[in-house]
Amino acid sequence: MAATLYTYPENWRAFKAQIAAQYSGARLKIASTSPAFTFGQSNRSPVFLSNFPLGKVPAYQGDDGFCLFESNAIAHYLSNDALRGSTPQASAQVLQWVSFADSEIIPPASAWVFPTLGIMQFNKQATEQAKEEVKRVLAVLNQHLNTRTFLVGERVSLADVTVVCSLLWLYKQVSLLSFSLIKLFVSPLSNLHNYHFVQFLAFNNFSILSESISVLLFKIVISLAKKFAEMQPKKETPAKKEKGSKEGEKKKEEKKATPAEEEMDECEAALASEPKAKDPFAHLPKSSFIMDEFKRKYSNEDTLTVALPYFWDHFDREGFSIWHSEYRFPEELTMSFMSCNLITGMFQRLDKLRKNAFASVILFGANNDSCITGIWVFRGQDLAFTLSDDWQIDYESYTWRKLDVDSEECKTMVKEYFAWEGEFKHVGKPFNQGKIFK
Ligand SMILES: N[C@@H](CCC(=O)N[C@@H](CS)C(=O)NCC(=O)O)C(=O)O
């Protein structure tokens, strides 16, 4: 059976139905752009209104003529039993969370976000109240997820789909508001953050979404960081104070600034401006091994003849450690492009570790038969992930084994992973369609 879902592009309510259909295998055509459907026009036409009297989207029409409005009902209809909850208890719990999303998340989220879109008049007291309410509701979710992977039972259900979609909208909209949301949403609510945006959607990489949620989340965090950086009082540089007629030249000079400033990206800028953000490596004695210098060699020179000897000549075994990583759920690795997203997403999320870590990670194998393993060089003798909440997102999905830096095994692995060639005996698979990340 085929069917059409009328909506507008990127409608989070329609995502619920689209994701449910993707899970259950139901075929669904999306009519979201003209000439098939023009939101604001098509939904006001007599023919549309005769099927959907509210004139709202998403709206579902089966090829058999069956029509349905209300996004939750459409998502329910497109689901399979597993998504709906296969026991009376589970299906009631699914309904519980679907209702929770609609009546607990959406109203305060709307009260918070609508004024910023000009849809509602701004009222400071109402906004503050809405923020508190969102925070309270998300804390409930966070608590629930403390010991669970999914909202209901041990697998994805419509509860996850619905709650995630209602949050997706909130994340997207509020990302325009203020950096304080990073604190509100990302740090204290780490269970929620891990669960929703990384574990669930990112792992499943829904093709119906215009981009994977992990990328979206990354963009949101970046835009929050940017917003925050913009909000910070600008540092008055001497050059600026002397503002004279040669504006153009001055600007160029300012731009040169210090190498540190030059290399700062938005994330780092935000981090740098955070009140007293602690350097998690501050307790370690200074090391003679400069990661940046090694990385420069590695990027610019031949690996086997220059970068590798440089690495071992300069490696500081007291100040650094070497680890082998292996993805724990290879059976979940289906399409290799998804696995690539998983790895690049991880690297993006760990970007702040850039000056203290190096990794060469390889996706071995092909679609539906692959594994992800890698070699990591970390500052210190422990895994760095536990030093910051932000870094823990991916780390539990891997097994980590510290290598004896003097062992032959370590030497071989470092050589093979750095050079992306060799037998990779420990992988136990031919190194055929491997994809490499560093
Ligand atoms: N509760 C409904 C809400 C649907 C709804 O409000 N849709 C809006 C767009 S998000 C709409 O189509 N508005 C058009 C209109 O009011 O004319 C659902 O979840 O499907």
From TrEMBL:
SUPFAM superfamilies: eEF1-gamma domain, GST C-terminal domain-like, Thioredoxin-like. Residues 233-263 are annotated as: Disordered. InterPro entries: EF-GSTs, EF1B_G_C, EF1B_G_C_sf, Glutathione-S-Trfase_C-like, Glutathione-S-Trfase_C_sf, Glutathione_S-Trfase, Glutathione_S-Trfase_N, GST_C. One of its GO terms (molecular function) is translation elongation factor activity. This is Eukaryotic translation elongation factor 1 gamma. Residues 1-86 form the GST N-terminal domain. Probably plays a role in anchoring the complex to other cellular components. Residues 233-259 have a biased composition (Basic and acidic residues). Keywords: Elongation factor, Protein biosynthesis. Pfam families: EF1G, GST_C, GST_N. EF-1 is composed of four subunits: alpha, beta, delta, and gamma. Residues 87-228 form the GST C-terminal domain. Residues 277-438 form the EF-1-gamma C-terminal domain. It comes from Sinocyclocheilus grahami. One of its GO terms (cellular component) is nucleus. PANTHER family: ELONGATION FACTOR 1-GAMMA.
